[in-house]
Amino acid sequence: MRSFALLLGLAAARCAFGQDGALPFRLVAGINLGVGLPRLETINGAAFTTSPHFAGTLDLGATWTYRERWGLAALGVLAINGYDYMKGAVDYDIYHLTRRAEVRAFWQRSLNERLRTSVRAGIGLGLAFQGGDTRDTREGTFQALTTATPLQRTYLAPEVCLVKMEGRHRVEWGLRYVTHLQREVALSTRLSDGADTTLATARHDHLALVIRFHLGMKRLALPAPPPPAIAYGDRTTDTLTTLTANRQRITLWLWDNAERDGDTLSVIVNGRPVLTGLALTRKRHKLKVDLAPGMNELLVVAHNEGRVPPNTASALVRTGRGRKELLFSTSMQRNQALRIMREAR
C-alpha cells in the first residue's frame, strides 16, 4: 500500500508541474454502480431466496495516456457489496466494505473527431483487502450469522467505456465486470427461520456501470527569453510551409546540418520570443513551443549570415500529426515563417 500511495503521489506531482500534451497525466475520480449475486445452499426445510443487489465503489487515482491511444491508471478503491435475502415476511440485507488497489491498462480509438469521443477498452488487475468480522442478527425466530474471513485476493476487471473529451478534461462511462481469481468465499451468511436453514456465500464478483471524471491540470507556461536585439520587423517574411497540430505544446529541434559557420538565430511565436541568440551546431537543440488555438506563426530570424550566406537551420517538428523535417533559410533582409494550425480539442 505504501508503494501504491507513492505512485499516486508522484503522478499527482507530475500533473501539478504540467506535462507535454503527448504524455498527459490526469487525476481521476469515479464511481461504479453495479449488482452482484450470492450462492445459496439449502441446509434444511424451505429455502431463502435472493435477487441482484447493490455493489459499488468509490475510486480515486491518476491516469497517464499516450497520444489518446493507450494508457495506464493507478487507483485506490473503497468497495461495498450488498446482498438481500428473503423468505416469507423476512427481508434481510447485509453490506460488506473492502479496500482495493488497482492498476489498469487501456487502449483507445477515436469514434468521432468532431464530437471528440472515443471508445476505450481496458483490463484492471487489482488486490482486494478485507479484515475478519462477525455479525449475529436475531429477530424472533429469524437468525442471521454473517462471517467475513481475513483475505487478500487478486481480481481482474475487463471493461469497455465511452470517453468524451472536454478540453484537457475527460468524462468516461461504460461497463465492467469484476471477477476474483482466488475463489475463496469472502462473505458467508447462515440464515435460519425456525427449522429452515440456508447458507449464502459470496465472492464479491459483480457487473457494474462505470462513471469517471478525469481532471487535467493546467500546465505551466514556458519561460520567455528576452527579445532579440535586432530590427527583424523591418525585413520581409516568407512562409516556408503550413502544418497542422492537434496539441497545445509541440516540440522543435534545430541544428546546423552543413558546415558549422557561426549561424545564430532567434525564434518568435505569435510575436513572443521563445528562443534568443541560438548559435547553431551539429548538436540538436530541443525547443518546446506553446500554440494558441487557430493559426500560429513561428518566425525564424537571423542574427547574422555566418561565413557562408545565407543563415540556414535544419529543423524537425513534432506536432502530434507526425514529424516533419524542414530547412529554414534566412538573411539580414529576410525572415522565414512556419505557420501551424492548432485544431480544437
Structural class by secondary-structure content: mainly beta
- Helical content band: under 10%
Strand order in space, largest sheet: 1-4-5-6-7-10-11-14
Q: According to CATH, what is the topology of the largest domain?
A: Porin
CATH classification class of the largest domain = Mainly Beta
Distance from first to last alpha carbon? 36 Å
Task: Describe this entry's structure for a reader.
It is a single chain. By secondary structure, the chain is mainly beta. The chain folds into 2 domains: 2-216, Porin; 232-342, Sandwich (Immunoglobulin-like), CATH 2.60.40. The protein is 4% helix and 66% strand. The chain has 1 helix and 23 strands. Strands 1-4-5-6-7-10-11-14 form an 8-stranded antiparallel β-barrel. The protein has a 5-stranded antiparallel sheet with strand order 2-13-12-9-8, with no helix packed on it. β8 (133-139) and β9 form a beta hairpin. The two termini are 36 Å apart. 32% of the residues are buried.
How is the topology of this model organized?
Elements: H1 2-16, E1 25-36, E2 39-44, E3 49-50, E4 53-66, E5 70-87, E6 90-112, E7 117-130, E8 133-139, E9 142-148, E10 151-166, E11 169-180, E12 187-193, E13 196-202, E14 206-216, E15 236-245, E16 249-255, E17 264-269, E18 272-279, E19 285-290, E20 294-302, E21 311-318, E22 323-330, E23 334-342
List keywords for this structure.
345 residues; Porin; Immunoglobulin-like; 1 helix; disordered N terminus
Short description:
With 345 residues, this protein is mainly β.
